[in-house]
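Action item from last week, closing it out:
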Amino acid sequence: MNQKNVEVSVEGELFKRRRSEIPDAERVLTLQEKLYQKAKQERGYKFYVLYDKMFIPYMLRQAWKSVKANGGAPGVDRVTIADIESQGVDAYLNVLGEELRTQLYEPQAVKRVMIPKANGGERPLGIPTVRDRIAQAVCKMILEPIFEADFEDSSYGFRPNRSSKDAITAIKENLKQGKTEVYDADLSKYFDTIPHDKLQIALKQRITDPRILKLISKWLKVPVCEDGKYTSGKGKGIGTPQGGVISPLLANIYFHMLDRIVNNAGSLFYKYGVKIVRYADDFVLMGRTLPVEITDRLKSLLDRMGLMINESKTRQIDAKKESFNFLGFTIRYDLDFHGRNTRYWNIMPAKKSEQKIRDKIKVYLKTHGHFKAQDVAAGLNPIIRGWLNYFEIKGISYPAMSKRRLRAYLYNSLYRYYNRKSQRKCRLYRHNAFEVLVTRFGLIDPSKYACQPARL
């Protein structure tokens, strides 16, 4: 059966049912598949009528479900997800849909908060209102399948059915192919420095609907509220707020210009067999050799894009001699574990990643001092499970030593936790708390944990 017959068959099944019988998610997926197929089949096609999909009720409902599932704090209007549910979701979405339809919708200011970084610094996080997050989610559902048809295979961050595990797998494959010269790049404040005018040019490669482009421009130029003080965004020509629903997609659309050049068969990078592996704004160049003309060309391209390399955090290494970190992993060329005169590519959690999980456990135990043992185990398990699942990549990573160190930390932390004076009345006082929590209350033992596959 050819592609056209498959599409007719699928549409035929949809038309056999009443619209009210078709789940919103299925209707959104059908629209996205049509947009993707059109973009994939006609590389030069530009979509000039998309805005009418911004206020379709099932699109708004599905966007609401996505925003609700992600949770998050309220924006400057202090309206929470719970507030909207108590007022009535349908009525709320009807008002928003009508504002979008009549083009009277105006986004509100973004609330900026500073998030601590592992190195002691801070990074800004922009929190749009729930209302604006819903509108952005609808726009993302429309634009994402169009640009997914164009994105390079070397890009892994914030994309459907792709993850950090795929990026690490690609890095290991490149290393095994002899591409051991690594340019470990760090961009200076990428999200904060994306030029709006050049981003619009990138968008116009596929989107010519002026209403969609205007809407995106409004989100980029909203005022910022920090500590109760408002800063106008109208004169601002750069940056997309980290925290916005649509920001990761816009960031990928802009960086795609560099991905495309590096992977182009006629490029200098291709001539030297250089590969790029990128996750959002984190990327590495890998090759058998990386001459200075390659790095100069990269810097020149980034300069034209209005972006800058952070030289103090960027380095070029021979991965056979020096380790490097990427996405929380350390990648190192180690001697064979069994003493044989061979080496292998050892990929494991970085020291900072191990410290981060220890800090989370420490904070949890400190703030749950009087919880029952079964509740402590239930609260620790999602923290432990998430970390283990992230760093376990079957056949690629080797986190066994990190798992044992995490087990030892849990053992000692729980022993100290339950041997405080305040815990004298607890049954675990002066007992092997870790073993009891594991055997009786289901606490995860990291050294025995098997990675759980993601549910589809």
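Closing note: The first helix runs from residue 3 to 15.
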